[in-house]
UniProtKB/TrEMBL annotation:
InterPro entries recorded: PyrdxlP-dep_Trfase, PyrdxlP-dep_Trfase_major, PyrdxlP-dep_Trfase_small, Ser_HO-MeTrfase, Ser_HO-MeTrfase-like, SHMT-like_dom
Swiss-Prot/TrEMBL keywords: Amino-acid biosynthesis, Cytoplasm, Methyltransferase, One-carbon metabolism, Pyridoxal phosphate, Transferase
Protein name according to UniProt: Serine hydroxymethyltransferase
Required cofactor(s): pyridoxal 5'-phosphate
Site residues by UniProt (Plays an important role in substrate specificity): 238
Lineage per the UniProt record: Bacteria, Bacillati, Actinomycetota, Actinomycetes, Kitasatosporales
Family affiliation: Belongs to the SHMT family.
Source species: Kitasatospora cheerisanensis KCTC 2395
Principal location class: cytoplasm
Localization per record: Cytoplasm
Modified residues (N6-(pyridoxal phosphate)lysine): 239
Gene: glyA
A GO term for molecular function: glycine hydroxymethyltransferase activity
Catalysed reaction, written as an equation: (6R)-5,10-methylene-5,6,7,8-tetrahydrofolate + glycine + H2O = (6S)-5,6,7,8-tetrahydrofolate + L-serine
Length: 420
């Protein structure tokens, strides 16, 4: 086979898949149809850009390039080296960070590498508690983090749902953590990074910013950056950034070596170089005015959606949002999060149940829902469409018949299907 007749184009590749594995090809078609027929509102999901998809399917998928540019364990790494150096430079520039590591395969891997770089087994760590919106990697007993380190959790105030910085300070003074983790997965407000830095300095702790959800906002100038304050910042590339599934780490020069050695070889082997290429593409796209417009549209849409939910009696936590995320309480509508998620899914509105702070329901039921507008905004939706989505959600949650809502959701989904 010559280069010319190798299955190098997307369509040839799809045909090869159909021929080799019709079962998987049909399931991928089914996934396409599922998405075209419903609205994707899961907080952590987004649509990678077409350029990112092309890089993911490109020839670097095959390349072994263990190590770092110029210091590889494998030969033939010249293009891969340049790709990784570009990804690093673009990450540094986009986030104004002295050093970047673009190899973590997921945000969780990036978090664990940050711990590996800064902590020893048994060290105390202060992080947002899981019940109040912390991620599993912030000390769940089911995760590496909760077994190897001594996690203590801070939370939000019951009256307004905002992070209680006084509690953070009190717990920091009490437990003297080696690191404080700022950030979570369902907190819809900006974080006060300077206040976290001050508390970390008071107890001589490292500050790790887990900006999985926030990084896209920061890139667009729609949220304050943790980078000037945190010792290490963790970014998810597949969320608002619209890149490939993965993570990256940002830090100052003094921690650069430790971070790099923690990612490889401590936590990972060879990086997925196609993912590194796709990260480079996403980082370049995130520096454009078009991306900033997209992010502001996602945030305006989330505000409209939160207002519509509030009008329907599903109170948004913290009273609203500064971001593309909305977390709402559905217990006052007589629903559990599980039932709310089921009803919304039946109407084609795909969102996630979640525990709310001080949740009276068990974790298997929960009293809340969490959603994000990144995917809908990536398809071109804005404030008016997402406001309508909020009204549709309100109707479903208030017990209206599903069918008319399902019909309107299908219409909206079809109108924007295939766009990204
Ligand atoms: C999304 C997210 C994670 C998990 O990311 P994965 O890539 O699924 O491992 C962890 N922490 C934070 C803060 C996140 O936003």
């Amino acid at each position: 086979m010559t280069v010319a007749d190798a299955p190098s184009t997307h369509w040839q590749a799809v045909e090869a898949l159909r021929a080799a594995d019709p079962l998987i090809a049909d399931l991928l078609t089914a996934e396409d149809e599922r998405r075209a027929d419903s609205l994707q509102l899961l907080a952590g999901e987004n649509l990678a850009t077409p350029a990112v998809l092309a890089a993911l399917a490109g020839p670097l998928v095959d390349k072994y390039a263990e190590g770092y540019p110029g210091r590889r364990h494998h030969t033939g790494c010249a293009p891969a080296d340049t790709v990784e150096l570009l990804a690093i430079d673009r990450a540094r520039e986009l986030f104004s960070a002295p050093h970047a590591n673009v190899q973590p395969r997921s945000a969780t891997s990036a978090v664990l590498a940050a711990y590996a770089a800064l902590l020893r087994p048994g060290d105390a760590v202060l992080a947002m508690s899981l019940e109040h919106g912390g991620h599993l990697s912030a000390g769940s007993r089911a995760n590496f983090s909760g077994r190897w380190f001594q996690f203590h959790g801070y939370g939000v105030r019951e009256e307004d749902g905002l992070i209680d910085l006084e509690q953070v300070r009190r717990l920091a003074l009490e437990h003297r953590p080696k690191a404080i983790v700022a950030g979570g997965i369902s907190y819809p407000r900006h974080l006060d990074w300077a206040a976290f830095r001050e508390i970390a300095d008071e107890v001589d702790a490292y500050l790790i910013a887990t900006a999985g959800q926030t990084a896209g906002l920061v890139a667009a100038g729609a949220a304050p950056s943790p980078v000037p304050y945190a010792d290490v910042t963790v970014v998810a590339t597949h969320k608002l950034l619209r890149g490939p599934r993965g993570g990256l780490l940002l830090c100052g020069d003094e921690l650069a070596d430790r971070i790099d050695r923690a990612v490889f070889p401590f936590c990972q082997g060879g990086a997925a170089m196609n993912e590194v290429a796709a990260k480079a593409v996403a980082l370049a796209q995130a520096a454009t005015p078009g991306f900033a417009e997209y992010v502001h549209r996602a945030v305006d849409g989330a505000r409209a959606l939160a207002a519509a939910l509030a009008a329907a009696g599903a109170a948004p936590l913290t009273g609203g949002t500064d971001t593309h995320l909305v977390t709402a309480e559905v217990g006052s509508l007589g629903l559990t999060g599980v039932e709310a998620e089921r009803r919304c899914a039946a109407a084609g509105l795909m969102l996630g149940r979640c525990a709310v702070p001080y949740d009276p329901a068990p974790p298997t039921e929960t009293s809340g829902i969490r959603l994000g507008t990144g995917g809908c905004a990536a398809q071109g939706m804005g404030e008016s469409e997402l406001g309508e989505v909020g009204e549709l959600l309100g109707r479903v949650l208030s017990g209206a018949a599903a069918e008319p809502v399902r019909a309107r959701v299908r219409e909206l989904a079809r109108a924007f299907a295939g766009r990204r």
